[in-house]
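INFO batch 0412 | record 1 of 1 | parsing
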Amino acid sequence: MILRVAIVAALACAFGAAPALAQVADDRNSALIILDGSKSMNEDAGNGGTRLDAAKRAVDTLVERLPSGVPLGLRVYGSKVAETSRAEACRDTELVVPVGPLDKEQLRSTVQGLTGKGRTPIGNSLLAAPDDLGSGGQGRRTVVLVSDGGDNCAPPNPCDAAEEVSRRGIDLTISVVGLQVNERVRRQLECIAKAGGGTYQGVDDADKLADELAAMLTRAFRSYEVEGTEVTGGSAPEQPAALKEGLFQDALAPGELRWYAVDVPAGQRLLASVTAIPSHETSGQGRLRSELFNPDQQPLTSRHEPLYGRGRNVAGRVASQPLAMAAPAGSQGLPPGRYRFSVEVERGLEADEVPVEIAVQLLDAGEAPGLTREAGELGAAQTPTPTPEATPEAAPASDGDGSGTDVLIVAVAALGGVALGVGTGLLLSRRRLA
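INFO prediction complete | emitting tokens
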């Protein structure tokens, strides 16, 4: 269930995210998934199936959420030729679904028919990606590589291949999802993402693959302009900016940490996404960090990834991170109440400020995430009710027998609880994909 929310979140950042990001679709933009179909994908994923089974479920979940017709393609390597001949197995990379208007049934049936057989020719697959995506138009082109292993067919070296591909066009980037990889493979996949001007995300829980894919692919079909209601995050967890559902925008200086909060009622779970969008003029390299806390200020989810400025003919990079409750409030030790999250753009980027977009959804039990498209409404400020000062009260008169002492009785009113103020904002209209 969670591998399904890393393919739905890397495919909802080309198209939004799981944390769904609400964006304006741009049909000039296109995306390509490069999927590992090698023999190692037959290994147990720890969730009652193989890694390839998990990828199939994630894609199946994904196509249910995506609008038909978005420009998307699929390349698969290692699924047709066994390792009996190294040379032949290293040529086993095929564009199985050409980049074009999404045919959901075609993509679903193609992925369901895959079997893991051969080697891992990542470098050769990356070199084919520019032709897969085409060179027509001025739209952005996004590649998302999903692999459980490193390249075992070099040459070409996959990092060199990624850099060569990124140099072919200012608007072509390569991001990577590593599924249950070891340290050596992780270093190679991170190198590919960095050379390709994209981001890397590791997934140990196969059920989270859909989330990570959606988070990466949501942004492939949107502009670089932030949208939503303007908000300024609080400087401390005790003073967060309160948000309701919808889309919001803020701007953070490098090194600045800001706080936001969402009130989550029983029976619903919070799904938020944070996207940093440096301008094309930004240079340097920093990191985007975000963290979600429960009402008792216990950390639930922590995310961090590189945030690049322009370099190697690549424009400023976008980084997107999902922040999600694992279950509805009132279950699994998640109380209803005010959930806070922090966002920080670490120092390193050479910019006065970096635009940040925040999407917020509250989902009922079993409800699937959608694309957040409408400006959000600001929530209510939450401030403690001040305790009144003590008021002296006159003592009863002495009975006059000389034994009495005047006594001062002090009445203190102890007022508990928290007062909720009333906030106003833009009318929120939620649109979720069927």
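INFO post-check: DSSP finds eight helices and 21 strands in the chain.
INFO record closed
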